[in-house]
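Hi C.,

You asked whether I'd gotten around to modeling the 287-residue construct. I have! Everything is below, sequence then structure, no commentary in between.
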Amino acid sequence: MATLDAGVLGRFGRTRTAPAPVLARRKPTRRRLGPGRPIPFGIAVGPVLLIAAWVIGSASGALDPETLPAPWTVAETAGDMISDGRLQSNLLTSVKRAGVGLGLGVVIGVVLALVAGLSRIGEALVDGPIQIKRAIPTLALIPLFIVWFGIGEEMKLLVITTSVAIPIYLNTHAQLRSVDSRYVELAATVGLSRWGFVRRIALPGSLPGFFTGLRLAVTIAWLALVVVEQVNATSGIGYLMTQARTYGQIDVIVVGLVIYGLLGLFGDVAVRAVERRALSWRQTLGD
């Protein structure tokens, strides 16, 4: 303890000591809830691990090549199909079918969702048939579509379109119905027209549901394509798989499955990229 000099003692009458330092309490760091920042290229981790397990299983002999060919065998088969042009021509046909069906289904689903979501009369007319179609599997409708439209491209596109329109309608309609009523009151206060309300409030407010439905629709489009291309088709990846099944070419079947899987994965990645840009204003757990 340090003692002050005599002048200071005479003035204050006693010795003072320096105050003990006050230890500042550290605020406990709070962990952020949620998944945190996304892992770069995290979507590829699962497929890479799946391929690695396939390679290890084939190399170790755990997988019977007669049941599931090795990855290098499948890659060699795909190379042969590319060299003779079979893969490119049939892949282009499949992509065209899925793209046209997806586009038509998205437009129809959005229009029906707007009709049902913005009008009570429209909802009474539209929602019931949509729910009925939702309960009927696509496979159950194919025999009826064949009777009505034959086995040509019209039947295939109709199956894909009707399958795609359902998730687009359901998710967009649900989001329209959940638009904050305060925005509706604000639109009435500022005197927005019907079209102005749809363009400035209804459509932007329904975008989160629309993109959720679009992600489902992309996957469903490929699933419907797999089905219709194995029904009296003369081209497409499904046609190649059907021919391979007839001749016992398992490696060709696996090539087709890999292509369908990659198309679905890349389609989902593309939709999510557009969704992040379109909904950049929205804060989510993954941000």
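If it helps when you're writing up: Residues 58 and 70 are 5 Å apart (CA to CA).

Thanks,
B.
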